[in-house]
Design brief:
The chain is an alpha+beta fold. The chain contains three helices and two strands; from the N terminus they run βααβα. It has one domain. The model has no long low-confidence stretch (mean pLDDT about 95).
Length: about 70
Protein backbone atom coordinates (compact mmCIF):
# COMPACT_ATOMS: atom_id res chain seq x y z
CA UNK A 1 0.00 0.00 0.00
CA UNK A 2 1.24 3.54 -0.59
CA UNK A 3 2.74 5.50 2.30
CA UNK A 4 2.26 9.26 2.61
CA UNK A 5 4.83 11.27 4.56
CA UNK A 6 3.56 14.27 6.55
CA UNK A 7 4.74 17.70 5.55
CA UNK A 8 6.16 18.46 8.99
CA UNK A 9 9.30 17.80 10.99
CA UNK A 10 7.13 17.22 14.06
CA UNK A 11 4.80 14.42 12.94
CA UNK A 12 4.74 12.77 16.36
CA UNK A 13 3.92 16.04 18.14
CA UNK A 14 1.25 16.85 15.56
CA UNK A 15 -0.36 13.43 16.03
CA UNK A 16 -0.28 13.85 19.81
CA UNK A 17 -1.88 17.28 19.45
CA UNK A 18 -4.65 15.76 17.31
CA UNK A 19 -5.41 13.14 19.96
CA UNK A 20 -5.23 15.74 22.74
CA UNK A 21 -7.60 18.06 20.89
CA UNK A 22 -10.05 15.18 20.47
CA UNK A 23 -9.76 14.17 24.14
CA UNK A 24 -10.32 17.80 25.17
CA UNK A 25 -13.51 17.93 23.11
CA UNK A 26 -12.27 20.37 20.47
CA UNK A 27 -13.08 17.74 17.83
CA UNK A 28 -15.64 14.95 17.96
CA UNK A 29 -13.33 12.37 16.40
CA UNK A 30 -9.66 11.93 15.63
CA UNK A 31 -10.60 11.97 11.94
CA UNK A 32 -12.14 15.43 12.43
CA UNK A 33 -8.94 16.61 14.13
CA UNK A 34 -6.87 15.17 11.29
CA UNK A 35 -8.97 17.01 8.72
CA UNK A 36 -8.60 20.31 10.58
CA UNK A 37 -4.98 20.05 11.69
CA UNK A 38 -3.45 18.19 8.75
CA UNK A 39 -0.18 19.65 7.50
CA UNK A 40 -0.49 18.00 4.11
CA UNK A 41 1.89 15.49 2.65
CA UNK A 42 5.44 16.06 1.48
CA UNK A 43 5.85 12.83 -0.44
CA UNK A 44 4.15 9.57 -1.28
CA UNK A 45 5.94 6.26 -1.70
CA UNK A 46 4.59 3.29 -3.62
CA UNK A 47 5.64 -0.34 -3.24
CA UNK A 48 7.71 -1.86 -5.96
CA UNK A 49 5.36 -4.37 -7.64
CA UNK A 50 8.06 -7.00 -7.96
CA UNK A 51 8.72 -6.81 -4.21
CA UNK A 52 5.13 -7.17 -2.97
CA UNK A 53 5.42 -10.93 -2.44
CA UNK A 54 8.52 -10.40 -0.28
CA UNK A 55 6.77 -7.64 1.70
CA UNK A 56 3.85 -10.00 2.34
CA UNK A 57 6.14 -12.81 3.52
CA UNK A 58 8.00 -10.51 5.89
CA UNK A 59 4.72 -9.13 7.22
CA UNK A 60 3.43 -12.64 7.95
CA UNK A 61 6.61 -13.35 9.95
CA UNK A 62 6.10 -10.07 11.81
CA UNK A 63 2.55 -11.09 12.74
CA UNK A 64 3.74 -14.48 14.01
CA UNK A 65 6.47 -12.84 16.07
CA UNK A 66 3.98 -10.40 17.57
CA UNK A 67 1.59 -13.21 18.49
CA UNK A 68 4.45 -15.16 20.06
CA UNK A 69 5.58 -12.13 22.11
CA UNK A 70 2.05 -11.54 23.35
CA UNK A 71 1.72 -15.18 24.38
CA UNK A 72 5.07 -15.18 26.21
CA UNK A 73 4.26 -11.91 27.99
CA UNK A 74 1.12 -13.36 29.62
Amino acid sequence: MPIKVCNTDQACALGAAMFAATAAGAYATVADAQDAMNSGFAKEYFPEPDQVKIYDEVYQRYLKLGAYCEEVAK
